[in-house]
C-alpha cells in the first residue's frame, strides 16, 4: 500500500509568517504529513512574480523554512524544500507554457484581480504564467492531492486540464490531481479590521500577529484588537466580527470549543478574554519562536536539511521531467 502524494507550498513573502498561515495551513500540513507522502515547498520562484529585494528574498526563504520546521513540519516525515533548489520546476513550467492557451491563462481570476490592481506596466509575464508554474509544481510529483483554499481552486483546475491535455496529446505522462479543497480549519481576520483576512501583505501591520513577534508585542496587539460596544463574549461572525475572530483563534490554539470559551468568559468583558487569549497565543508561539531563532543560529544545519530535502524532491521531479521531455521530443 502506498500513501497518497500531496503537495502544498507558501511564498517567502515576508520575514515572518502570520498566525493565519499557521492556523490555516501549517496546522493542517502537520497533520497531513502523518498520512501522506507530503511535499511542502517554499515557493521562491513564485515570489519573484512581484518585485523582490534579493537579499531579503534569500533571508525570507530561510526564515520561512525555519518556521515550517519549528511549527512541526518534520523534514524527515515529509519533503520540505525550496522550490528554486529543484530546477525541474522552471523546466517543466516551460513545457506546460507551450500547451497553455493565452485565453485560458487570461481567464484566471487571481491574475485579473492582481494585474488590475497593479496596472499593466507593473504586471509581469511571470505573474501571468504563475498558474502554469504552479501546475508544474504539482505535476512533477505525481501529486494526487492538493490541499488548497477556495482561492486556489481555479489554478488546480487548470493543472488538471493541462495534465489531461498533455497526456492525450503525447501519451500518459502525468497523474491528474484531485482538487482537495481543505476546508480551512478556520479563517483568521485582521485584528484591526476583522472583516478582512489577516495577511502577510496587509498594508498596515497593526492587526497582524506574526509568528516571530516578541510576546510583549503580541500581547499589546491583542489587547488593542477591535471589538464592539456590546460587551458580550458571544460568537456572532456577522454582528461581532472582532470578538468572533478572537474566539476563533483562542479555540483553535487552546483546542477548546467556542461554546466552552463563551461560558468561561460570560459576563467578564473583553479585557479578560483578550488577556486569556494573549496567554494562549504567546504560549503557543513562544516555543516556536525560540526554535526558529535556534535554527537560524545554525545556518549550516538548516542548509544541510534543505539540501537533503531538495535532493529527495529532485529525485522524484527529474524522473517526471525526463518522461515529459522525452514525450515531446526533447
Ligand atoms: P498571506 O496572505 O499571508 O500572504 P497566502 O495567501 O500566501 O498568505 O497563503 C498561504 C497559506 O496560508 C494558504 O494555505 C492560506 O490558505 C493560508 N492563510 C493565509 N492567510 C490566512 C488567514 N488569514 N486565515 C487562514 N488561513 C490563511
Ligand atoms: Na509523510
UniProtKB/TrEMBL annotation:
GO terms for biological process: tryptophanyl-tRNA aminoacylation. Keywords: Aminoacyl-tRNA synthetase, ATP-binding, Cytoplasm, Ligase, Nucleotide-binding, Protein biosynthesis. ATP binds at residues 11-13, 20-21, 149-151, 188, 197-201. Pfam families: tRNA-synt_1b. It comes from the Bacteria. It catalyses: tRNA(Trp) + L-tryptophan + ATP = L-tryptophyl-tRNA(Trp) + AMP + diphosphate + H(+). One of its GO terms (cellular component) is cytosol. It is an enzyme of class 6 (ligase). Its EC number is 6.1.1.2. Its main location: cytoplasm. It is found in: Cytoplasm. GO terms for molecular function: ATP binding; tryptophan-tRNA ligase activity. A motif ('KMSKS' region) lies at residues 197-201. L-tryptophan binds at residue 137. Belongs to the class-I aminoacyl-tRNA synthetase family. PANTHER family: TRYPTOPHAN--TRNA LIGASE, MITOCHONDRIAL. Homodimer. Catalyzes the attachment of tryptophan to tRNA(Trp). This is Tryptophan--tRNA ligase. It comes from Cryobacterium cheniae. The lineage of its organism: Bacteria, Bacillati, Actinomycetota, Actinomycetes, Micrococcales. The gene is trpS.
Amino acid at each position: 500500500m502506498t500513501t497518497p502524494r500531496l503537495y502544498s507550498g507558501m511564498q517567502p513573502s515576508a520575514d515572518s509568517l502570520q498566525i493565519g498561515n499557521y492556523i490555516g495551513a501549517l496546522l493542517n500540513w502537520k497533520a497531513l504529513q502523518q498520512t501522506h507522502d507530503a511535499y511542502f515547498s517554499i515557493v521562491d520562484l513564485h515570489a519573484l512574480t512581484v518585485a523582490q529585494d534579493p537579499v531579503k528574498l534569500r533571508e525570507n526563504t530561510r526564515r520561512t523554512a525555519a518556521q515550517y520546521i519549528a511549527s512541526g513540519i518534520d523534514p524527515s516525515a515529509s519533503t520540505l524544500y525550496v522550490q528554486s533548489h529543484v530546477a525541474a520546476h522552471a523546466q517543466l513550467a516551460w513545457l506546460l507554457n507551450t500547451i497553455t492557451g493565452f485565453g485560458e491563462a487570461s481567464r484566471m481570476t487571481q491574475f485579473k484581480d492582481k494585474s488590475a490592481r497593479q496596472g499593466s506596466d507593473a504586471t509581469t509575464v511571470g505573474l501571468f504564467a504563475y498558474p502554469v508554474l504552479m501546475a508544474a509544481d504539482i505535476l512533477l510529483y505525481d501529486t494526487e492531492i492538493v490541499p488548497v483554499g477556495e482561492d486556489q481552486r481555479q489554478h488546480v483546475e487548470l493543472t488538471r486540464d493541462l495534465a489531461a491535455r498533455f497526456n492525450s496529446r503525447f501519451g500518459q505522462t502525468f497523474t491528474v490531481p484531485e482538487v482537495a479543497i481543505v476546508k480551512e480549519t478556520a479563517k483568521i481576520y485582521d485584528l484591526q479590521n476583522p472583516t478582512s483576512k489577516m495577511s502577510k501583505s496587509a498594508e498596515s501591520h497593526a492587526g497582524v500577529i506574526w509568528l516571530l513577534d516578541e510576546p510583549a508585542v503580541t500581547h499589546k496587539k491583542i489587547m488593542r484588537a477591535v471589538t464592539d460596544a456590546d460587551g458580550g463574549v458571544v460568537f456572532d461572525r456577522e454582528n461581532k466580527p472582532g470578538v468572533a475572530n478572537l474566539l476563533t483563534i483562542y479555540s483553535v490554539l487552546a483546542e477548546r470549543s467556542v461554546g466552552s470559551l463563551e461560558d468561561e468568559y460570560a459576563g467578564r468583558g473583553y479585557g479578560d478574554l483578550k488577556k486569556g487569549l494573549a496567554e494562549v497565543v504567546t504560549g503557543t508561539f513562544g516555543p516556536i519562536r525560540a526554535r526558529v531563532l535556534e535554527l537560524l543560529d545554525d545556518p549550516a544545519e538548516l542548509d544541510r536539511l534543505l539540501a537533503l530535502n531538495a535532493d529527495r524532491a529532485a529525485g522524484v521531479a527529474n524522473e517526471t521531467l525526463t518522461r515529459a521531455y522525452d514525450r515531446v521530443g526533447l
